[in-house]
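re: ur msg from earlier - yeah i can do the S-adenosyl-L-homocysteine complex, just paste it... oh wait u already did. ok heres what im feeding in:
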Amino acid sequence: MTSAIIDLLKQDQFFKKDIIRLLETHGEDRTLLFKKSAEVKEKYIGNKVWFRGLIEFSNICGKDCLYCGIRKGNKNLTRYNLSDDEILAAARFAYNNKYGSIALQSGELEGSFVAERIENLLNKIKELSHGELGITLSVGEQEPEVYKKWYDAGAHRYLLRVEATNEALYRKIHPDDSKHNFRRRLDCLKSLQDIGYQTGTGVMIGLPFQTMADLADDLLYMKEFNIDMCGMGPYIEHADTPLIEHSGTLLPLKERFDLTLKMIAILRIMMKDINIVAATALQAIDPIGREKAVKIGANILMPNITPGKYRDSYKLYDNKPCTDDSAEDCQSCLEARVSLADAVVVYGEWGDSKHYSERRNIQAGKD
Ligand code: SAH
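and the outut:
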């Protein structure tokens, strides 16, 4: 087997069958996969990690995704919405501590109130940081005009996970109504890319009904769409969600974890210069899960800087880690952890996706 994998890993274009093969590696073959992805990361990115201070500013959500703990239908949690001052204080913390960037994330709500509020916050964050803080948004599906307004106000990256690129699977994990429309999610991603954002997407790994072929297609979709950033993590059950009824059919947590590492490694080989997040959900399964991801290909970490008292209410899945910590705790903890992965945190830089600038240069050459 091993020599076949060595040959396969010499390729940097993979067919679906190759990806499935790599997802199914174990033992020495798996070690070879991780060795290769680590080499690619070292060559194209270096042993570096950039922070995005994560502000989970509201858990109020208009959607009812069947897997998600903050879904509208879950009555077993306290809803919160940080005040503008609390959000700005968190952004100031990030700025003072030389995090190059923040990420604003929340449940999904649309409408002019949300559009204007975020625009106003973007302006204020740019002002308090003298234009120095990079800003990623992750606030779901919106109209193209709204995305444009936020881009013009200074947001330059957007993370919208498609969650599953197989439409049939997507439908199984979402309610069947106009608020949960697969095509619209893809259209939103496209408009983000067209507007000029560094565009990120991702999927959950180990979902009920999901196959290896689905995961291979997810990676091929990302390559084809030409994403700049990826955030993907293991699916973890939440007791107060409808998908819990399928928990008996799931892969063991350790296997979901392992598959996530392999997805990251394969994507790093396929898309060498994109930004890949080491998702927090990895740490819910393995205490040094994010470090393992950094070692084999991820280059972005999102220390949580949401004020501590709200964290317990942003429980997307059970056993979400670090909900008792403060922003300071997260920083020192993550820094120590990153050095465990033989990487260094780069402070005071945006850490933009290199892929984005390459892609824009190529585009400019064509125009
Ligand atoms: N809904 C917002 C972001 C908030 S949720 C948006 O789409 O922009 C952030 C991410 O958490 C989701 O995209 C989803 O991939 C992930 N998530 C939700 N429930 C999860 C679960 N049970 N296990 C693992 N990840 C989950």
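cool cool. The chain has a mean pLDDT of 95. ping me if u need the other ligands too
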